[in-house]
Amino acid sequence: MPIKIPKQLPAREILEEENIFVMDEDRAKNQDIRPLNILILNLMPEKEKTEAHLLRLLGNTPLQVNISFLKTATHQSKNTSPMHLEQFYTTFAQVKNRKFDGMIVTGAPVELLDFEHVDYWEELTEIMAWTKTNVTSTLHICWGAQAALFYHFGIGKYELPEKCSGIYAHEVHDRTEKLLRGFDDTFLAPHSRHTDVYKEELLKHPEVKLLSSSEEAGPFIMSANGGKQIMITGHLEYEAATLAEEYTRDRSRGLQVPMPKHYFPNDDPGREPFNKWRSHAHLLFSNWLNYYVYQETPFEWD
């Protein structure tokens, strides 16, 4: 949480130069505590696993968070029971008149399709348009990040020669960005996708800030419009065994996918992989909730 200090205290300028977040008394008086309302559009096929991945990270902060799960009305999930969806999920028509402090748009196994050929693309564009006025900050993950880059900024994706799967080293490009406060200069994160975006194309859009990238895996974390849109091309929310489960699943289906890089000890699929990104996953979600949601959202939406 931020340090609350008098507005005119000389130390304030020093602390801000050191990128330490401070809050003055005037601002503190206007911030009564209330739960944060977070909406999760879960586009992943195994929805219950994704729910656990995200809730683990969202629940590890001092903030009280109310979660709502959103499903698409124009696509029926084949891997999650209708009873589960009926009990725990809502549709956009049921929430579009509400305001949310934060939103998460997950990845989806549709990256090899053109965006316009995804059967729920029109519905998704309506939701992304709605977030501009009804959500304080939206976090987009993997294909969700590519969809946001295409919809908001016209930045397209391209197909990779082979699937990008593994644990890759990333560099922090902007240490003053609040989303990356506390990050090491280099850190590890999982990726699992068949497509990517060109770094050169991102740099043509000054409204999009490239905060972190990998020499092997490409652009990773991006922010736009003061953090109103945040795009992450990888999967910091993954558990240690998730890439192994995906690899086994794809191989059992006869798909010629590469073994995840830098993942299994000694590149032996028979050995249990380690989670080497957990701390940065918790830190990123904590930073997002604190600096981009809690500190920015109004106490009462008009």
Automatic annotation (TrEMBL):
Catalytic activity reported: L-homoserine + acetyl-CoA = O-acetyl-L-homoserine + CoA
- Write down the EC number: 2.3.1.31
Q: Which domain of life is it from?
A: Bacteria
**Location of the protein in the cell:** Cytoplasm
Pathway, per record: Amino-acid biosynthesis; L-methionine biosynthesis via de novo pathway; O-acetyl-L-homoserine from L-homoserine: step 1/1
- Active-site residues per Swiss-Prot or TrEMBL entry: 142 (acyl-thioester intermediate), 235 (proton acceptor), 237
Site positions (Important for acyl-CoA specificity): 111
Biological process terms from the Gene Ontology for this record are: L-methionine biosynthetic process from homoserine via O-succinyl-L-homoserine and cystathionine
Binding-site positions, substrate: 163, 192, 249
Q: What Gene Ontology molecular-function terms does this entry list?
A: homoserine O-acetyltransferase activity; homoserine O-succinyltransferase activity
Record-level GO cellular component terms: cytoplasm
> Site described as Important for substrate specificity, positions?
192
Q: TM spans, by residue? A: none
Main enzyme class: transferase
Any Pfam family hit: HTS
Provide this UniProt record's keywords sorted from A to Z. Acyltransferase, Amino-acid biosynthesis, Cytoplasm, Methionine biosynthesis, Transferase
Protein family membership: Belongs to the MetA family.
Q: What HAMAP family does the entry give?
A: MetA_acyltransf
Report the protein's function. Transfers an acetyl group from acetyl-CoA to L-homoserine, forming acetyl-L-homoserine.
Give the protein's recorded name: Homoserine O-acetyltransferase
